[in-house]
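sorry for the late reply, my laptop died twice this morning and i had to redo everyting from scratch. anyway the thing you sent over, i finally got around to it. pasting the sequence first so we're on the same page, its 179 residues, then the predicted structure underneath. double check i copied it right bc i was rushing
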Amino acid sequence: MELWDVYTKDRKLTGRTHVRGSVPALVEGDYHIVIDVWTFLPDGRLILSQRDPAKPHGLKWESTGGSITTGESSLLGAAREVEEELGLLLNSDEMILLGEQIRNDSLIDVYVTRLPKRISLDELSYQVGEVVDARIVTKDEFFEMEAQGLLTHNMLPRYELYKEIFDTYFEPVPVLETK
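ok and here's the structure:
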């Protein structure tokens, strides 16, 4: 059972909680915080995960995301979601909050981070019921996937909203390899 804190539109706690998936759903004026983490490798490629087929938009590709749980900060929830869904431990000090969006009953916090070292898909582990696969893509491959209708509906609008920042992350950075 996943429990969410309920917020007002201006991010004030209401003192109430909500059980994910329960009926009734959140009522008008109630919100929960959702995070969206764009994780880049040092070579400028982006990690995308494929949604479980049983979820809405099943088998579509997306950045890592999910709802924060009761008592959890947005930043800690972002790091937890990446660890749960992909098995990656992120340094929250290296995660940057790009902005906040409101959609339906969600207050969405969009983060970006760059891993300090290269990884391969073999190093990832997927959360059962959430993620079935992952890809590491270039900017061109990201747009090819969008053109083919493989990405969730929110990926391109989020990219466009933070294009200037994401484009800097799509560029490789020098990596010091340690032995």
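The longest strand covers residues 32-40.
thats about all i looked at so far, will dig more tmrw
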